[in-house]
Write the structure tokens for this entry.
Amino acid sequence: MKAIQITNPGEIKIIDKEIPKASEGEALLKVLYCGICGADVASYTGNQPFTTYPRIPGHEFSAQIVEIPENDKGLKAGDVVTCNPYFNCGECYACKRGIVNACHDNQTMGVQRDGSFQEYITMPVERIIDGKGLSAKELALIEPFSISCHALSRARINKGDNLLIMGAGPIGLFALIKAKSMGARVLIADMLESRLELANEFGADCTVNVKETDLHKACEEFTKGNGFDVCVEACGTPETFLSCINESAHGANIILIGNGKRETTFVHSVILKKELNIFGSRNAFTKDFEELINLVKDGKADIIKMVSGVYDVDNAREAFEALSHNDGTLAKLLINFEA
């Protein structure tokens, strides 16, 4: 079978390897579509500190069951599914408390272990999630959607709340879709007009291009001077984190999704003064996947608009190069393993 392997930073090969054999409690899956995550791009460019080489990337995917043992999920051969790709140890302090998404020894497919960019994979049955009739392309988008869904679950969000999202990349846009389904009023800010145009398509109540518009004035107008009930940081920069603090209401919730790479310096007394609640967010739970599959199935989220292009396996390098030099016009790119 074919597999896409990052051999070293900047180097991708299409390799041939044996189709894996399922062990006890595992199913054999035929991969259909894989999404390229920012973590995969970071592995390709050499900016992912957790990746070792060579590595088969990928953890956003859909697949068809080829073989599966009897199970209490009702899953059978032929079903189109997705999977929870975050492998936890089950023994650390976090796992013992049920916080398996923040396992001390977390191994995400495509990063700490080989991932889904291959024609066949095996998966523990417990990690396989029924696709409930969604298309293979839609199911390949559920994992990044789950990152945003889990993040928003970290803090209470009420219908009518004013919610700020800093960053209109795929994770910020998925957060927008989920927040709108919860009845929030959403202002989303970014530097790239093409991303904000997509945010408008997904129902943003207000979009702000921070290169052209004063963010603080726009936030003041949107919230009538009260500040935001919830702020979501989806960029990972000190500037966007500070914007969340500055634009938050007293008693607000701030949720951090963006993976920061630079230090943030500020006088923390503002957190005390406003009595802010700040939440980190990592990975997702299987229940987040299931919730979102139902949301898409019920027609409440047209996530297929997130797909900017589909590449064949043999053209994987071109897809990675496109995202490595993304000017903001690309959201999600998929690799087609279905053929």
Notes: Residues 187 and 206 are 5 Å apart (CA to CA). The chain has a mean pLDDT of 96.
